[in-house]
Amino acid sequence: MDAGGNVFDPNRIDQVPTLHVLRVFVNEDGEWGNPLGVFLDGSEVPEAERQRVAAELGFSETVFVEERASGRLRIHTPAGELPFAGHPAVGAAWLLAREGTPVERLRPPAGEVSVRFAEGRPWIAADPGWAPGFEYRELGSPADVRALTPAGHGRNAYAWSWIDAAAGTIRARSFVPEQGIAEDEATGSAALALCARLRQPITIHQGHGSVLLCRPLADGRVEVGGAVALDDLREHPLQAVSGSRG
Q: What is the pLDDT of residues 166-191, one digit of tens each?
């Protein structure tokens, strides 16, 4: 039995959860963005199976929504569970609204996350202290950021440089080996933390072409928002657990 009270029988073949595949923080042309898997009926995937499913999918994060109305959800990387992450929160907020169950709050294990929409984009507000540990490295130019390679990063690193300090535009790349992610295309939680450090609104151009919008709030939280696209909707069969058959 999982946390939602559902019993998972590995001998059944008709338990096939539905998976939405999104790209979060796409640019103005709808390109790039960070892929995200979302199970809106996350209770259909037993807790004991979620880490395996997240590793199998291979996205930087996969979201399991445990209760739509309350916004209660869990987040897994290929290597483990996170109490909070930015692009999963933004993507889940967008998808819940798209599917007719919008929420004003999300509830990952870290705590409550506020949700709002502006010009069709979802924004979430959270404590920047919830961001996973990163080494923040300011480099001299966008070219220096582009020249980096994912290899050789033993710890999580977020490298960035100003494109235009006066305009608040930034070039960034994110390497997250501690969570089994060589390079993350768009990292909302790191953007929250960087915005808190800089204490000003910023627009981050990360990875190959993703765009993250951030602004600090008066209460110490930071907002991050951006555009989201739906890439795929498919069934994801749950494999029987090895050794479970009689």
A: 999 999 999 999 988 999 999 999 99
Which tokens hold the place of 94?
């967008």
| CATH homologous superfamily for the domain 130-226 | Diaminopimelate Epimerase; Chain A, domain 1 (3.10.310.10)
Q: Which long-range contacts (CB under 8 A, 24 or more apart) does 44-48 make?
A: 44/6, 44/15, 44/17, 45/2, 45/17, 45/238, 46/2, 46/6, 46/8, 47/2, 47/3, 48/2, 48/8, 48/241
224 CA to centre of own chain:
11
The class of domain 18-115+228-235 in CATH terms is alpha beta
Cα dihedral 100/106/109/112 (nearest 10): -160
| Amino acid residing at 146 | R
Q: How confident is the model at residue 14 (pLDDT cuts 50, 70, 90)?
A: low
Q: What is the pLDDT of residues 71-92, one digit of tens each?
A: 999 999 999 999 999 999 999 9
Q: What burial letters (b/e) apply to 207-244, b meaning 16+ CB within 10 Å? A: bebbbbbbbbeeeebbbbbbbbbeeeeeebebeeeeee
